């Protein structure tokens, strides 16, 4: 019951914030909100834009990945509440309507996901076990993104060095764990090889980034230009704090995750690795979210996404909620200072975009491989054939489905096709 209430509250508050123009989750929508608030775009146009930008991601990205990991990807909820809130005209009555619709939507996602999983068990070909393979490559490959980000920003040679050092660090930890070399007060300590590789890669990325400094004298141009919009965000900080607290508490209960990488790690029981991945992802999103928030006066319902890491690492949901609220408060209060920092170290600002690009490319490859493995586990032979054809036909069609969704969606399609084949007696599962 508590889980349902949490999901309903998150959905309700996010929809209300979207309706009132306080916060939206889709980074692409944030710069558009002022166009409506300042009279240059109709609410109908805004609602249609929100639907066009978010609906496909909910259906093709958020929900399939949520099903694969049995943890709800936050995109499934907050992209939907963006649509709900922005589809209604801004106002107190409509905000209440949006809140009710958002609550029903949040609860519906919770029950709907479980219903889908339960329905799979009733099928003649239950492909849940095979479908779980979708996330396996993600767990292993997420440690590569700092090296890719370094290569994109600082050149391939530095990227290769970062990759090699991270890979060596990983293997040294594997060796140390196998030989039980690391001990504390006589007790064996097992470290995460992927987590250590990620930390090493991030150290390289941050070191390279801070070497680039700005020569400009005025380091607060961005903040000074949009003082009123920063003040608007601070005015509603108490609402944003509630949102951050709810999300952190839900993450603590493993109801939701902020990204596919940490979701798959959490689904495998790798809590600390999931937390590290979540925090690393948050670092990459700071420049984008901070810049768009300062420029538009519209924040995100999960802030810089550090609230997910807070939820993972804290021992109790109430503590997670308090810490999540405190993190959002600190983020908002530090927006002006953060703008100065991003101006002073342009390398850090640029690294945010490169981290996101690197993560996107890794997820595209990892989820495609995972989807192919899952599809082939469901229906051997046909699985690889279907995913390869699905991917190439999607590319030929101009990519109507985002690349990250091809693997999960393709695996679901193969599962459905496999069940049809079983029903018509055209395929006999290996275990049958």
From TrEMBL:
Keywords on record: Membrane, Transmembrane, Transmembrane helix
Chain segments annotated as transmembrane: 47-74, 95-117, 137-154, 161-178, 190-210, 236-256, 276-299, 306-330, 365-393, 405-427
InterPro entries attached to this UniProt entry: Uncharacterised_YhfT
Domain of life: Bacteria
Coiled-coil residue windows: none
Protein name, per record: YhfT family protein
Lineage: Bacteria, Bacillati, Bacillota, Bacilli, Bacillales
